[in-house]
């Protein structure tokens, strides 16, 4: 044994322990460090054998001390563990868990992003004399050990795009995906394709990949974790964390920290505990399936026993997912029970076509069941029975109309179209002959005379068309101000001042000179877009709550309910637009900034399910959203994949899903169930993106330009498909539904 080397290792372990404990005083560590430093002088004349025994004794004492400290770790201590440069990284796992691998792609910033590592790997398993090589696709965020070019595992849009590309390759090759989540969050930039848009696409596509997906969480930070975290089986390292936002970010919001100020350490520690971010918290709440136990104070690169455990649990998880969708359910259950007791069974990871379909259905059911206890269902028993009976009637009607009547009508329609086409061929020839005869004698047909009048006559106003007004049962409180309003662009564009009453009634909050859209209340939208008297709200009494018992949050939620008269930030309803039946969900900025928690996610999912049952198009109007509600922790974060899966199911069944943004729309909802729509539009002067200006400055240090999140920027990078004036919303929505839906307006 090299005594000096061993002493250095012991000292490094002491310093590592100090690092993860932050500024906490631990006298025993200080005393132990002094003892190590004094060791050479104390044993300078002792025999080598005695010195070695003394070092071994120190090693055992430090191990005991580490175990004692490990049992007392707080949530914030675990956050420091996963951020430490000595923390085990993905390269370590590839080297020690898999038998062979090839990293795919280079280190080029704009083609792969060095923070996202992708590898084609093999796990070799022996059965008797036979060796079976089972291929997998490994994707994950790579921090390395303090390698700055990895950007701390904070992934840029093209890194997530590359990950999705190779997950699709895995699906084509029918091999499992192992996703290692180790990120503080995605890099908040809106360069093409945009952080939010790319995460939304990743979640949407992963929901339908027909291969087993196993996710292993170390640091699961917000939307960055969800970009590769959707899985059939989710494992988590015992010292990891999984959260909607970092404890520092939560503390900054809770403490209303501005500028260069820092949140107090006590507030950060409190937020880390209140958000329920540890592996143990997430297992209890059902957001992960199993915990992989780590050595005391977290796994580091030289903990080789830990790698054996990772390998065993990752292989077993892949086997279990495969067996759960293969063969008869009776045999599957027996195989799973037998497999738990006998680790020498080798399961082939290939799946039949039917098994792959079952896998996706099972994945949908898994996520649908999550967060069911995280919202308040205040509906009476009568309301619940009514909702159930309505669903049964709608399902039965749907089965009859669209399963029997519609296919029959389509067959009749096709026959009539073919017959009509044949008749047109005959009558067309007769008509051409008739026209030729009339032309020869200089006589104009009645149709030609009508065309001549239309070309030369004066046009008439169609008085049957309704003009949009702001007097349809709702007047904006802003219209009651007896003052002139100045347009923000007046200095540049020469806009004249407008009386508030005129601006917020006749002009619908739109500057008549430059077209700037002033913010308006969500009630304006409800009363001016849809046909009068047709809005029928449902699931109103599914209410936002405080599932994590976050300190003082109950009062704030109650205050929001009292102030707005709403139970959550999401309103779901049925309505008609020019006689067209729609199902709608609205995120209201007045209620906690339009933030999304368990109640909002559940209401959105139920609305999508109702639209699918009724065969109606779905409209998501975002009056404004600040993102996922941080006080609900993972209960809120899990709504990103949950609602996205519901959107995917609705769209795959043929549903028409349109999103319209207004005011400010940021973060999780935009990076998931809103951003995955193929048809997204924005009201002029709205702002949208992955993170607000303050968050970007705080996380990257970059000062962004004022128009960085402008809707026209979003249009230029392909995030949205059009920018509308508020005065044109009703007309444009009607046109969009008709042109996109066509004759099959509700379903393709």
Explain this structure.
- The chain has four domains: 3-72, no CATH class; 83-346, Alpha-Beta Complex (2-enoyl-CoA Hydratase, Chain A, domain 1), CATH 3.90.226.10; 370-406 and 520-748, 2-enoyl-CoA Hydratase, Chain A, domain 1 (Alpha-Beta Complex), CATH 3.90.226; 477-519, no CATH class.
- The protein has 748 residues and is α/β, with parallel strands linked by helices.
- Helix 7 (195-206) links the parallel strand 4 (177-183) and strand 5 (213-221).
- The longest helix is centred in the middle third of the chain and has 60 residues, at 381-440.
- It contains 26 helices and 20 strands.
- Mean pLDDT is 85; it is low at 461-471.
- The protein is 47% helix and 14% strand.
Helix and strand arrangement:
Elements: H1 3-20, H2 27-42, H3 48-71, H4 75-83, H5 90-97, E1 100-103, E2 116-127, E3 130-141, H6 157-173, E4 177-183, H7 195-206, E5 213-221, H8 222-229, E6 233-243, H9 247-254, H10 265-274, H11 279-285, E7 290-292, H12 304-324, H13 329-341, H14 353-368, E8 376-377, H15 381-440, H16 446-456, E9 484-485, H17 490-493, E10 498-499, H18 500-503, H19 522-529, E11 536-537, E12 542-543, H20 553-564, E13 570-577, E14 580-587, H21 598-614, E15 618-622, H22 634-637, H23 639-652, E16 657-661, E17 664-666, E18 679-683, E19 687-689, H24 693-700, H25 711-716, E20 722-724, H26 729-741
Parallel strand pairs: 3-4, 4-5, 5-6, 6-7, 14-15, 15-16, 16-18, 17-19, 18-20
Antiparallel strand pairs: 1-2, 2-3, 8-12, 9-10, 11-13, 13-14
Helix pairs in contact: 1-2, 1-3, 6-7, 7-8, 9-10, 21-23
